[in-house]
Design brief:
Number of strands: 2
Distance between the termini: 43 Å
Strand content: under 5%
Radius of gyration: 27 Å
Helix content: 55-70%
Number of helices: 4
Largest sheet: 2 strands, antiparallel
Structural class: mainly alpha
């Protein structure tokens, strides 16, 4: 550590940093942390939310379609498949309700922020 005229210590910070595989592109490896931050795995909020809504719609229609197939005499589908699809659709509705509630809570908190 060196001292300059203004009584401020001068550190060699670069020499004190402990490098890992995730930090910087040392030893010919790409920086893993920066690459993950620069390219998000998912799209924007609107695309993700619309995808969830489309999947929810498909989950809600699945029990009805299976029940129609059972009633028409399709031997490949039994009542257990219908009950499983109904349980999945119920869970999907519960998850969608929870997500909607959390999004509304987050929106309310953002709107309460005073600038």
């Amino acid at each position: 550590m060196e001292y300059n005229a203004g009584w401020m210590p001068k550190y060699d910070l670069e020499a004190r940093i402990q490098h890992t595989k995730l930090d910087s592109g040392i030893y010919g490896m790409e920086p893993a942390r920066l690459r993950r931050m620069e390219t998000p795995a998912t799209g924007d909020f609107k695309a993700v939310f619309s995808g969830l809504v489309e999947n929810l719609n498909a989950e809600l229609n699945a029990p009805d379609n299976l029940l129609k197939d059972v009633m028409s005499g399709n031997n490949n589908i039994d009542i257990h498949d219908v009950m499983t699809a109904m349980a999945k659709s119920e869970i999907s509705v519960n998850v969608a309700t929870q997500i909607t509630g959390k999004v509304i809570q987050a929106y309310d908190k953002v709107m309460q922020i005073q600038v």
